[in-house]
Design brief:
Blueprint: H1 6-9, H2 13-16, E1 20-27, E2 30-37, H3 40-46, E3 51-58, H4 70-82, E4 89-93, H5 104-109, H6 120-125, E5 134-137, H7 142-145, H8 149-160, E6 164-173, E7 182-186, H9 205-208, E8 212-222, H10 230-233, E9 240-241, H11 246-265, H12 271-277
Parallel strand pairs: 4-5, 4-6, 6-8
Antiparallel strand pairs: 1-2, 2-3, 3-7, 7-8, 8-9
Length: 278
Amino acid sequence: MFSDLAIEFASDKSKQSSGISKTEDFSEDIKVTTVKILSQKVAEELGKPKGEYISFESKRNENIFDFQNIADLITENLSKLIGNLSRTTLVVGIGNTEVTPDALGPKTSSKIFATRHLDTMSLQQFGLGKIKPVAAISPGVLGQTGIELFEIVRSVSASVKPDLIIFIDALAANEVSRLGSCVQISNTGLCPGSGVGNKRAELSYETLGIPCITIGVPTVANAALFIKSNEIEADACRYIVTPREIDRIIETASTVLSNAINRSLQPYVDRELLSLIV
């Protein structure tokens, strides 16, 4: 299993190459790390696309979504990545609702304030004239639909014509302590399933022609990374581990992430009103 987290795959590389940079900051008990892959050479060496990766990590290895300021931190940094791109946005929740550690994307997308179908007159009647068009989908996984995620996103994008796509996905980590205690956002797109050895077609600006942002939370790690018993070591790579409280992590994470996405996409709407809408 390969890590999806820049703080894991770039920690040593940032000390060896000028093609990658890493900066750290702290907000109360949350560590904010920004990794920028600057050169194509480093990107190829790491097997990760060029771009910016911002992670938020609990210093005490606790559920990061229990921290009161996490939604504000995500909103602030996500808004910077979005910039002026979000005239029309497509939010895509990636994952399988039948598998709890993989349900983050669908759970979060179900709480997105979808507005593309609302007409201007209706919005003005509710004092929401400055709302931006947002569409949200949860397309399932290949095993459920028989359709590659890339094909679905490309087809929907051809109809919706978004200026920005935001993907939400569960991630894989190399450090068990980071499961549920870390959030990563990036402007690089993603390769679904790459962290668990089931890599699918890349979803990025290069393949879709649309700027892409990805938001993820590590929910699984490879059992082989920490199982030391010789009897099962050879077989351990077949298994993944997830926290026993994964149900609560997914539920709280989906609420916090959807809140941050809604606030970032609709900066002119009252925050309390947004929390009531979804």
